[in-house]
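Lab channel / #folding
Pinned by the channel admin:
"Please post every new chain as: sequence first, then the structure tokens as a reply. Keep commentary short and put observations after the output so the thread stays searchable."

First post following the new format, from NK:
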Amino acid sequence: MNRYLTLIVLFIGVNTISAQTIYEEFESYKLDDRREIKIQLPRNYKDNLEKSYPLFIVLDGDYLFEVVAGNVDYYSYWEDMPEAIVVGINQVKSRDADCYYSEQNSLPIESGARFFEFISMELIPHLIGNYRLTDFRVAVGHGETSNFINYYLLKGDPIFRAYINLSPFFATDMLDYIPEGLQKAEKKTFYYLTTASNDIKAIQEDTKTLNKSIAAIDNKNLLYTFDNFEGPTHYSNPTHAIPKALESIFFVFQPISKKEFKEHILTLETSPVDYLLEKYKMIEDLFGLEKQILVNDFKAIEAAIQKSEKFEYFETLGKIARKEYPDTLLGNFYLARYFEEKGETKKAMKTYRSAYILEEIGGITKDEMLDRADAIKRDFGY
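Reply from TO:
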């Protein structure tokens, strides 16, 4: 018999393109109680049966779930982050008990220890068994629950790869434990920390102290971001911080920006095509997703090759583009550029003329391809 009890399903929206929210009562033997959880599934989750998704676990789900879920849906809609499953745990009646810790060592005890095991030993295994998930998990907390999510960081082989700490109310010893845990991280770990000018004074002080400690850590596996917003209070800070947190965690997933192009690609001494491949390999390794290379990113690498005049890189770029977009002009355009710059003009002319049977893409038109072929014919008298 399934101990995870009755599901009450409510789909928000009027059609299948809307994100779906499920309300579930979860019966926990660890807590000896039922807990209300909210689950937002990505748009078209039911139609993409081969696709898996990162997981967000949001504490203080009573008020924080909708803020996180809305931002995740928005950012994933614009492809600035992968689609993800967001799960909120309601704690309005149990927050103090859930976050209970020892005054002696700042670690969870009694009801706090049971809540810790509920998430790691019951809720996440249940979600893994019922939804299509990658291994990339994000924990989100605010105030006392932000302190709590850091307990998972202290365990060997942590179950979360990213931590969003919103105006955290830290237990005393956590200011020492957290840097120690981040220093030992053996996998890529994203850590986002925030306070604000109108935050609670004790939180501002502790957060700034922790920021100094984390900023001094030398660990290539740590990807750390700190924000101190001007204006927000303790209660309004999450609405400012969550978008910034998503941007910082999923920066590699985003299309190549002008900043990335200028600061990272144009300054390369090696191949920009290798940079492109490494970017998408990192996406696969971090998030467990095979993402098609964006046309925007092909165009950025094309611009870098053009600017550096290292036209030999067009050959590899063209082969990759053919694989990613086989029915379009993209790959043949780059290969034709390669042949033309190499002096193999007949091959270039023939490749440009392939435009007859391929689809236009990324501003590359059949007319442009054919004009280039005609120009070669005129210049060389073929």
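NK: The chain is about 45% helix and 20% strand.
TO: also worth noting, The chain has two domains: 7-253, 258-380.
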